Amino acid sequence: MKKYSLTIGWLYPELMSTYGDRGNIIVFKKRCEWRGIKTETIRLDAGFSVDDLKNCDLLFMGGAQDRQQQIVAKDLVKKRKALKQMIDNGTPGLYICGAYQFLGKYYREADGTVINGLGILDLYTENPGKGSSRLIGNVAAQVLNNGLIMGFENHGGRTYLGKNVKPLGKVIKGFGNNGKDQTEGAIYKNSFGSYFHGPMLPKNPEFADFLIKLALEKKYSSPINLSPLPDSLEIKARESIANRLGIDL
Amino acid sequence: MNSILILAGKLLSIISRFLNVGSGSTWPGHIALNLNKNFIKDLLKKSKIKIILIAGTNGKTTTGKLIKEILEKNGKKVFINQTGANLLNGIASSMLLRSSILCKINYDFAIFEIDENTLPLILKEISNPDFILILNLFRDQLDRYGEVNTIATKWKEVLSKLSPKTKLILNADDPQVAYLGLSRGVVSDTHRVWNRSYTSVFYFGLENKKRTNKNLQHASDSTYCPNCGSKLSYSMIFYSHLGVWGCPNCKNARPKLDEGDAPIYPLLGIYNRYNTIAAVLLSRQLNIEEKNIIAGLKSFKPAFGRQERINTSGKKVQIFLSKNPTSFNESLRTVSNLGAKNLLIVLNDRIPDGRDVSWIWDVDFEVYIKSFKNITVSGDRAYDMGLRIKYTQTIIHDSLFIIQEDLKKAIELTLEKTPKSEILYILPTYSAMLEVRKILTGKKIL
To answer: How far apart are CA A208 and CA A196, in angstroms?
Structure first.
């Protein structure tokens, strides 16, 4: 079998990694290595070079606390062009919580202040104000052709999707994008935004493999079949949460 | 009025304990505060008691107990609010239950462990405590407490209103905690005196230069300057984001230590060095004699679940409460240094633990897991913890650890595989720790 390799770009690991986001990087890395696919993870911290970004085959960016997001916002604006080019060209990526919101047009804070987003994805986020509560709890969503994804959400902002993006899934339990329209996350080309915060991938190995496959096929411009891995523990972890949420897998 | 509240509260507590409907540790206070919102203030007016508030993410219970032990060795009468009762109700209850009918608390000292979000509320009731000791600020239960920076901002605001009577004792090695003091005043000859209110600030930290890491741990929180937002530089890191820090931009830096070492350390782990040094610094501020400080430290017994040892059917067990990434990392590091071979991890996701278990991916299992040979995981989220450990492996093999959701069975199983000459180390989250103790000792504590 041909030797494959992937370069994973982790955007702002120091600043945007508050809720166990590292779990997603670990899952990418391990599920590649267990299959003999070599990986290199490039940490793209504030001030990173655009050339390093362009070398990446698969991108990930997580969520953060408000203060950290302000520092990131300043840096990210300078990289907008390069990132937009990659996303428009179909570089696969996973963007969680704060990262997901950043990709949109704007974020309106509880006090009405509007923070501009990168405007790469056709969506916007609003915090309905002080009286409204954060959307917190276990969450499950039905993904097109890909079964159920499960996780935990914790966000104050409500995200609304425009015409140029599709939802990642339909909410079965929990709140998703805004707690109203049953949408969860967004898909634009090969980029995926989601409110399943922190370690989204450990309990959703199919989704992890789907992203790895996308990245490999994009890099090698040919169809690739990933060898199966023993996922019995992942399945049990999913069943255990599904039971608690009272849903069937 | 207050006399009746005290009498009724005491009665209620006895009844609830007798009927076994909870320990009765918060209800009397809840009712008293509802009927008289000045209940705490009234009691304090009549009493000569000195008040010590302890806040911080990790180490409150241990530090409180260390101080109590030292004060008692000095002949003082001391009480601490019961663990789990660190909200306003619990604090009112603990005072009520120790008051005489004449509304006097006949104790020399009250030590209150304060929940992160409760500190501002408590300071409304107890506006001029004798001491406020702040240990550290780590990410913990973000779904419940909110974000580290939000807490620091709230604290800063309430601490600025303190009267000169209060002495602040702060961790110099934790940038955000130290900044609570640094941001208060102009540096002068007596750099510790706040220029406006003259509240004195004293700093503790680690003087020991041997225990240092080169790199920050993954779960570090405050690595950016609390004043200007620039990235901090560290010449030494003791654990997480605690170390000798400085801001290259605005020149804020770790303040000079008033206390950097303790005569003895009754508990293992760097985190407990901080707790001990903090207790010693506070004791010295109370002019307690050195020999009584040492005697107190020597006779100290760990609080339940905090390195507590339990013997069960001829086997040795030691419990290390591990409730957030930092405390989990430090527990793993401490037991690994002891040559631990047997490990039981119990992960729950109940309210006291935090409903979100995402944080387990911020714990550095990769560094420590290889040294164990007998590993079991249990608890409500046993499978999540199992996955976390699975993903530390270079090659997948199922024999690395066992998953047993039923805690009783998990304990039996792991104990069976623990030789009598070795110790079984149990690392539980908070509610899991209570369950583990109940199974091992047959007694319920909360």
So the answer is: 13
List pLDDT tens digits, range B160-178. 888 888 999 999 999 999 9
Domain count, chain B: 2
CATH number of the domain that residue A129 is part of:
3.40.50.880
Instruction: Kindly report, residue by residue over B8-59, the tens digit of the pLDDT.
Output: 777 777 776 666 555 556 777 777 888 788 888 888 887 889 999 999 999 9
CA distances from A2 to A5, A37, A41, A216, A219 (A): 10, 10, 21, 12, 13
- B174-208 residue pLDDT tens: 999 999 998 875 444 444 444 444 568 999 999 86
B358: DSSP letter: G
Alpha-carbon distance B187 to A227, whole Å? 64
Task: Determine the residue of chain B that is closest to A31 in CA distance.
Answer: B391
Q: What residues of chain A lie within 8 A of the CB of B381, using their CB?
A: 240
Q: Which amino acid is at B230?
A: S
Same domain, B13 and B143: yes
Answer yes or no: is B446 within a domain: no
Question: Which of B256, B284, B299 finishes a domain?
Answer: B299
Distances (CA, A) of B141 to A157, A211, B114, B325, B432: 19, 30, 16, 10, 15
Indicate yes or no: CB of A26 within 8 angstroms of CB of B387.
Answer: no
Q: Chain B: residue nearest A135 by CA? A: B143
Whether residue B65 is found in the same domain as residue B182: yes
Q: How far is CA B417 from the centre of its chain?
A: 32
pLDDT tens digit string along B391-413? 999 888 777 899 999 999 999 99
Mean pLDDT of the B80-109 span:
79
Tokens of A120: 């790469």
The chain-wide mean pLDDT, for chain A, equals: 92
The DSSP element (H or E) to which B112 belongs, if any, is: strand B109-113
CB contact under 8 A, B395 and A34: yes
Closest to B382 (Cα-Cα) out of B364, B363, B405: B405
Boundaries of domain holding B99: 2-299
Q: Do B383 and A68 touch (CB under 8 A)?
A: no
Q: Do B312 and B384 lie in a common domain? A: yes
Do B140 and B39 fall into the same domain?
yes
Q: Same domain for B77 and B214? A: yes
B355 in helix, strand or coil? coil
Residue A155 known to be catalytic: no
pLDDT tier at A13, thresholds 50, 70, 90: very high
Run of H or E including A194: strand A191-194
Residue keyed to tokens 């040892």: B309
Domain stop point among B299, B316, B331: B299
Hey, which residues 74-113 in chain A have their CB within 8 Å of chain B? none
Domain count, chain A: 1
In this prediction, residue B210 carries a pLDDT of: 58
| Average pLDDT over every residue of A195-212 | 94
Report the pLDDT value the prediction gives residue B259, as an integer from 0 to 100: 95
pLDDT reading at A208 higher than 80? yes
Amino acid at A99: A
For the cut 60, the answer to whether the pLDDT of residue B445 exceeds it is no
From CA B62, how far away is CA B67, in angstroms rounded?
9
Distance from first CA to last CA of chain A, Å, rounded? 34
User: What CATH number does residue B105 fall under?
Assistant: 3.40.1190.10
The answer to the question of residue B157 being in a domain is yes
Answer yes or no: do B265 and B360 share one domain.
no
Q: Which two tokens mark B1?
A: 């009025």
Residue A91: predicted pLDDT: 97
Q: Do A19 and B359 touch (CB under 8 A)?
A: yes
CB atoms within 10 A of CB A242: 18
The reply to whether B265 and B127 lie within a common domain is yes
